[in-house]
Amino acid sequence: MKILLTGATGYIGKRLLPVLVEMGHFVVCCVRDPNRFNPPAYLLNNIEIIQADLLDPAGLQRIPTDINGAYYLVHSMSASSNYKEIETQAAKNFRAAMDKTQVEHIIYLSGIVNESELSKHLSSRKNVEIELAKGRYHFTTLRAGIIIGSGSASFEIIRDLVEKLPIMIAPKWLKTKCQSIGISDVISFLSLTLFNKNTFDKNFDIGGKDILSYEEILLEYANVRKLKRRIFTVPVMTPKLSSYWLYFVTSTSYRLATNLVDSMRIEVICRDDKINHILDIEPIGYRESLEKAFDKIKNNEIVSSWKDSNVSSGFNPVISNFIQVPSYGCFMDKRLKKYVDRKQCLNKIWSIGGKTGWYYGNWLWQIRGYLDKLAGGVGLRRGRTNLNTINVGDSLDFWRVLYANKEEGRLLLFAEMKLPGEAWLEFKIIDDELVQTATFRPLGILGRIYWYSVLPFHGFIFSGMLKALTK
Question: How is the chain split into domains, by residue range?
Fold first, then answer.
């Protein structure tokens, strides 16, 4: 069968794609920016890549008319303050495009929406479901609570809180009950629902076997990690204070933290487990989901991470617009040095950031990360998804990977920290030298003041980093 996969570069899409191919489907991957899409080589004969933005009806005309099934895995929760209107319009455009094809079945992954009073985030998901259900095809909605898996937003937030805080003074919403689900079960539900007639034109809640409060979720994580943690809940933390608390302690963006806090005040528990019996799936519990996640992290097998999505920074670039580094009107710090061993030099470059750090003056990088957080930026807390591999579109601390070709010897990064301008950092092997170039395009007088104020630190940091990479 020919299957359309929207959100193919996202956390769920990256994991669902190989499963669909293994099931014998040919998958049409619908992506907004093809430069961010890096599927494994073994999948290439069984996929087609089309560029389309769901907010652009003209672009959706590229979708083949002979598709049989489709997945709608697109969300815009933290991309904009008016994401509710954006998500509704995207759903309308998609439905109109699908009605022009021969698609039989569409599956939408949503959130559990069983309360009469919904958060803005869950209300938006419900609106999308209503719009998609109006099409001339069979439609199924799978509604999930928080998803636990290596690289998932929920897992990373839990991880940050428990690993960093021995004692937590937390808001009262930590007493709210929820039913989490492991990422492996989410993929099973999504893949097995496709073309199952017992699921046509219905919605189902999917969840793991445990119903826990957020406090119990944090403490169980601590038990798995053999950490002693104490949590005290207080009623005085308003949603805004709670959002700031999440933002400063975890790697989430402030906008995402705000939407999460808004949703966490509402219980997300499955109505029933009908879908489990229809598909013959027995979901795992919360503890097993954690253990699976740690196995992937330990073996450096994280397939996808929410930090690599644009929502982690709130910046939504089309990579091709930034891959050509400008020179006119820019400040530039260019340094070059002969390397001792090309392979070793490249391995160091491809391991930069995250736990490895930046090879020189790491404490200054950390200070810059803290300042960025205070200014509302991403800081350094996103780290990197994998220890030794880098793909276009990955987040790398407060940078985004624009170009990565190890054989060619070139890595290009774009800054996503808060800046009065735009910045690039490039590493490039030319003959027997490593050329390291920092480029800054200032925005007005503030941009120029910023460049000259950090210039002394550049001389210290960039020269030390270059020496470390080439020795």
Answer: 2-306, 320-470
Domain 320-470: assigned CATH number: 3.30.530.20
Residue 154, pLDDT above cutoff 90 = no
Please give the average per-residue pLDDT across 341-370, as a whole number.
91
Average pLDDT over residues 87-106: 94
Domain covering 2-306: architecture:
3-Layer(aba) Sandwich (3.40)
Residues 377-388: tens digit of each pLDDT: 878 878 888 877
Three-state SS sequence of the chain: CEEEEECCCCHHHHHHHHHHHHCCCEEEEEECCHHHCCCCHHHHHHEEEEECCCCCCCHHHHCCCCCCEEEECCCCCCCCCCHHHHHHHHHHHHHHHHCCCCCCEEEEEEECCCCCCCCHHHHHHHHHHHHHCCCCCEEEEEEECCEECCCCHHHHHHHHHHHHCCEEEEEHHHHCEECCEEHHHHHHHHHHHCCCHHHCCEEEEECCCCCEEHHHHHHHHHHHCCCCCEEEEECCCCHHHHHHHHHHHCCCCHHHHHHHHHHHCCCECCCCCHHHHHHCCCCCCHHHHHHHHHHHHHCCCCCCCHHHCHHHCCCCCCHHHCCCCCCCCCEEEEEEEECCCHHHHHHHHCCCCCCCCCCCCHHHHHHHHHHHHHCCCCCCCCCCCCCCCCCCCCEECCEEEEEEECCCCEEEEEECCCCCEEEEEEEEEECCEEEEEEEEEECHHHHHHHHHHHHHHHHHHHHHHHHHHHC
Q: How does pLDDT run across 132-144, given as a tens digit for each residue?
A: 999 999 999 999 9
Whole-prediction pTM: 0.82
- Maximum average pLDDT range among 93-107, 111-125, 450-464: 93-107
